[in-house]
Q: What sequence folds into this?
């Protein structure tokens, strides 16, 4: 069972294997050639989230544990520092919300996970998402693995280190945040759920993402050294939501990067979903994406950072097409002026970056106007 933060390491290893097949699958709609990305900064390592508010561009860097604002000269001005396993960032006027997770290095388990909600005054409320997960376990009734496995199948999956037949375990990892109707939406990659969180820190379940079934191929069986009895078996992987955003007509959109191998043995299985805010039901918007780690809504399309394919894509009417090649693409955001922003992850070949994609002149607003409140310590409330 694969969870964040192992997610990025695994999709990075699979990016080369997936890139060619994913590019071939995204040719359903011809896309106009986009302007070349303009590099603004190379001071990031693992920029999991971008937040654009007017001309302000903020980045949450999980590599440094810092939330920073992009300046006109391309430098980054730290606003919050020292956030453990930082992922997810959203702003609403002077408000800011971001996710943090504490990992026990010895066991790899998450010992704390929550949403930090910072007011315009600089006060921070901590919403204990792991505590909520421990009390409610929203996907506790969802079945994962193989239903009624034969003795051969059970033995094969156990030997390969895959859980054979289980329901959702207690785990939390807030990975993406969006502002919605005066509340915050959180895509939690550990609990496979979308939460709503109030400014006072009250957590509620909005939706649980369904298990993602895949048929075990001969290639996958060979890769894991499994016997032929597993070929053709359907395995229900965890959904692993990686991003949440608000689209046209107030639609709640979510990307998922299912558990399991992220390579050619099972193909590109990432997807975008729409969540019904009244019922929690989800419906498919697009599929066949190569490790989608971030989505953003534009005027007439949904933009996707496909980490496994090294590109920014767009989804329109269910069809996927490439916007621009961008190796290491990890996060994406859209500005009100139509500018597309993206960030890439650092690799052995170089540092990460923040780029803009626009046909016109792009301006950014430097400094942070929040009454002088900056947090250079522990983020003001995260654990």
A:
């Amino acid at each position: 069972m694969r969870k964040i933060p192992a997610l990025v390491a695994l999709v990075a290893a699979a990016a080369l294997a997936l890139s060619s097949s994913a590019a071939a699958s995204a040719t359903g709609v011809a896309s106009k050639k986009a302007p070349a990305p303009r590099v603004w900064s190379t001071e990031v390592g693992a920029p999991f989230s971008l937040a654009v508010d007017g001309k302000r561009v903020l980045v949450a860097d999980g590599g440094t544990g810092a939330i920073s604002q992009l300046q006109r000269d391309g430098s980054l001005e730290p606003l919050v520092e020292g956030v453990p396993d930082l992922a997810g960032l959203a702003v609403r006027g002077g408000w800011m919300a971001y996710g943090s997770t504490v990992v026990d290095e010895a066991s790899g388990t998450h010992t704390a996970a929550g949403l930090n909600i910072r007011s315009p005054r600089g006060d921070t409320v901590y919403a204990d998402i792991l505590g909520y997960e421990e009390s409610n376990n929203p996907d506790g009734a969802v079945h994962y693995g193989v239903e009624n496995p034969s003795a051969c199948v059970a033995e094969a999956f156990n030997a390969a280190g895959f859980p054979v037949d289980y329901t959702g375990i207690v785990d939390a990892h807030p990975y993406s945040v969006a502002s919605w109707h005066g509340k915050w939406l959180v895509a939690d990659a550990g609990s496979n759920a979308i939460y709503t969180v109030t400014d006072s820190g009250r957590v509620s379940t909005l939706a649980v993402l369904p298990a993602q079934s895949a048929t075990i191929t001969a290639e996958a069986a060979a890769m894991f050294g499994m016997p032929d009895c597993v070929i053709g078996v359907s395995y229900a992987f965890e959904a692993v939501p990686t991003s949440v955003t608000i689209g046209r007509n107030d639609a709640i959109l979510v990307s998922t990067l299912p558990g399991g191998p992220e390579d050619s043995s099972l193909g590109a299985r990432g997807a975008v979903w729409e969540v019904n805010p009244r019922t929690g039901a989800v419906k498919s918007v697009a599929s066949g994406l190569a490790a989608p780690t971030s989505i953003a809504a534009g005027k007439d399309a949904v933009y996707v950072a496909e980490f496994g394919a090294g590109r920014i894509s767009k989804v329109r009417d269910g069809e996927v097409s490439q916007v621009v090649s961008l190796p290491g693409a990890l996060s994406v955001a859209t500005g009100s002026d139509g500018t597309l922003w993206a960030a890439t992850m650092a690799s052995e070949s170089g540092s990460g970056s923040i780029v803009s994609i626009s046909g016109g002149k792009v301006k950014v607003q430097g400094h942070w106007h929040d009454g002088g409140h900056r947090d250079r310590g522990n983020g003001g409330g995260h654990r």
In short: Residues 6-25 form the longest helix (20 residues). Helices lie at 6-25, 129-136, 151-160, 218-223.
